[in-house]
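To illustrate the input format used throughout this study, we show a single complete record. The first block contains the structure-token representation of the backbone; no residue identities are included at this stage. The design step must infer an amino acid for every position from geometry alone.
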């Protein structure tokens, strides 16, 4: 557990004690937690259910590639790993499961009870344990989760059960922290129009990705040489897990259709970064296009490496189905690059106006994807202008907006700090 500087009794009395319960250290969240810890009147303690992301693990989504993040997951904020009842290094409704949540929320003679509990998600044993413990102690609960109404198809029976569950949950929760517009619509649908919502947008460390991309620009030729690329040709980039719902196969087909005439390679390169169970099939499909000399498979790349590929790209494409948000879009926009996403990528409503920061197309519609690729790559200036607008847009979707939303929520449920 990190030790933080001692504070005077007066400062401690005025601070809101905030507990955050989450499954494991998450690379996207760590810099946000460090930023929250800097707030002088928020005393944050993070309770993790598992340390598997720190130890390193096999990610099935990346084709069981060994993953050990090369960015700092811990440090700069107070945290504790809860005693384990069940932990198999995955995240499901029934793992991890921990004990001791009630006792920690209750506090001790030396430390008062927490003023509020923030949980990530709402459908796991651990999260429900935390919510019930807080409710029993009279501690207000804030929920942040990723769902939206178009996430994926479910049977009428499952939807009915879900509605009953969320209706019951609404009596145990004091506020919701929506990550964006579609997520807010989801919560209004299930919790009611009058339920307290405080926007806490899904953001990344904008400064980190902006700086890494600027550094990468000075070394662009190195990566071009490594991948044997002609610097005069544009680059279409895909970077994600190679799973069916990411729809990389749709991008491959759209790329094939960019060929100006039979047997002639499309002018752009297609670079695919990532790994997963579909990689072998995608490599075969790339061979079948007849344009494999213009397609590169680069495998899994760690967090700190991605800005090199963002800088290399002319346009980034995420054609996913059922994508709750797509934080990689935030990252790419910090590299001043346009983005093309399907209408089932959750961030599109908030971050992308078609024809401004990039383009949006109907998920699964390869003709439409091909058309927006042609439009974005029509001239170098088209993509460059979209990229400039993307950077302008992402600057106002940052951790500072997260802090503002969190403070508003804490002010509402505790009455101890100002928004």
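Output of the design step:
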């Amino acid at each position: 557990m990190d030790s933080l500087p001692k504070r005077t009794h007066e400062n401690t009395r005025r601070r809101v004690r905030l507990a955050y319960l989450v499954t494991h250290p998450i690379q996207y969240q760590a810099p946000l937690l460090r930023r929250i810890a800097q707030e002088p009147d928020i005393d944050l303690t993070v309770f993790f259910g598992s340390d598997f992301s720190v130890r390193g693990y096999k990610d099935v989504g990346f084709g069981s590639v060994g993953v050990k993040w090369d960015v700092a997951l811990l440090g700069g904020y107070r945290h504790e790993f809860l005693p384990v009842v069940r932990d198999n290094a995955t995240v499901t409704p029934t793992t991890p499961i921990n004990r001791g949540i009630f006792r920690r929320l209750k506090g001790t003679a030396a430390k008062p009870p927490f003023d509020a509990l923030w949980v990530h998600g709402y459908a796991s044993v651990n999260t429900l344990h935390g919510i019930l413990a807080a409710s029993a102690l009279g501690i207000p609960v804030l929920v942040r989760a990723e769902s939206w109404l178009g996430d994926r198809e479910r049977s009428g029976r499952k939807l009915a059960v879900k509605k009953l569950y969320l209706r019951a949950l609404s009596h145990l929760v004091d506020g919701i922290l929506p990550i964006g517009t579609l997520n807010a619509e989801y919560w209004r649908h299930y919790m009611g129009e009058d339920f307290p919502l405080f926007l806490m947008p899904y953001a990344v460390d904008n400064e980190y990705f902006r700086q890494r991309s600027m550094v990468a620009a000075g070394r662009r030729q190195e990566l071009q040489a490594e991948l044997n690329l002609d610097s005069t040709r544009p680059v279409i980039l895909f970077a994600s897990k190679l799973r069916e719902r990411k729809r990389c196969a749709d991008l491959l087909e759209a790329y094939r259709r960019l060929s100006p005439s039979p047997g002639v390679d499309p002018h752009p390169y297609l670079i695919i970064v990532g790994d997963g169970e579909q990689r072998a099939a995608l490599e075969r499909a790339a061979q079948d296009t007849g344009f494999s000399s213009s397609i590169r498979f680069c495998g899994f790349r760690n967090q700190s490496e991605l800005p090199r590929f963002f800088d290399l790209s002319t346009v980034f494409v995420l054609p996913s189905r059922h994508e709750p948000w797509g934080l990689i879009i935030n990252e790419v926009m910090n590299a001043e690059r346009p983005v093309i996403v399907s209408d089932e990528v959750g961030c599109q409503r908030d971050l992308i106006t078609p024809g401004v920061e990039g383009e949006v197309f109907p998920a699964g519609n390869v003709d439409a994807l091909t058309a927006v690729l042609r439009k974005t790559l029509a001239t170098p200036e088209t993509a460059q202008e979209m990229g400039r607008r993307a950077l302008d847009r992402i600057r106002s979707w940052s951790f500072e907006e997260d802090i503002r939303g969190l403070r508003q929520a804490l002010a509402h449920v505790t009455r101890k700090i100002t928004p």
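Structural context for interpreting the output: Confidence is low (pLDDT under 50) at residues 1-13. The domain at 9-203+398-414 is CATH 3.40.50.2000 (Rossmann fold).
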